[in-house]
Amino acid sequence: METGVGVGMGGGGEHRGDEGRGPRTRDHPPGEVKVYVMVHQKSPHVLCVTQRLRNTELIDPSFQWHGPKGKIISENSTTHITTTGSLVFQDFEESMTGAYTCFLEYKPTVEEAVKNVQLKFIVYAYREPHFYYQFTARYHSAPCNSIYNISFENKLLQILSKLVHDIKCEVSLQKSECHHVKMQKAGFQNELFFKFAVSCIDTEKEPKPCDDNTCDYSKQLSKAKNLIERFFSQQVEVLGRRASPLPQIYYIEDTLQMVWINRCFPGYGISAAKHPKCPECCVICSPGSYNPSDGTHCLHCNSSLVFGAKTCL
Known about the structure:
alpha+beta, Immunoglobulin-like, Alpha-Beta Plaits, seven-stranded mixed β-sheet, 4 helices, 18 strands, elongated
């Protein structure tokens, strides 16, 4: 038995659509069904039947599919139409996103006239969210106008970058500020407030998923996180073994904080309201919206007329 999608991105979903011209049936499906297909992956079967017709005998059925570029032939390098009329994408490209319509003709019985059903789908490309870790840390510092703080900042970034270089990750400074801090039961001291991001390189810049296990983004980033946390933990240990006086600039224990931040590729966004069947997916932006950066939202844009817009012109 063939399984397929009609209302979600997994197998087993139900197809529903609008009936076309010709004798009416008792089906009353909604106008367009949203289908989600991961970029560069094979799709589940998109079924050209309504829920009622899936369990009904059809005499002499014929199926015809039309996509954004016109009629789809039964065999080509990117799509395949099965003998039962289902549409399968072999290697889904984001340019294949758009409206698809299946025209089904059949006889309920040998004696009855031909029935016509028209099923409409919007097929969306989607990607898994990519994410990065954002760290904050505080250091006791030299006076805020001291050049030693700038020198230390550069050295710290070099050390952190070298730590994660071999696992193809990178560290980028997001903010560095020096402040005068009033301590409890003490006077003022100078502190450096660092904020930096840790992300991994290969899967950020390469649109196709890696086959090699070393390219697994989550594993790479988890290793990078562990290395960063160990580095700051070792700073505390070294400082604890040090005889006084303390160095002018040193890490303040327990100030390292970390948050996980989601992001999508440009032209994609996350919206549980618009895509409830794929609520955590980075779905390609619809016409009328765009995403110029690696944020998580498709922004409104009246002049955007294509899927996956990265600019609003």
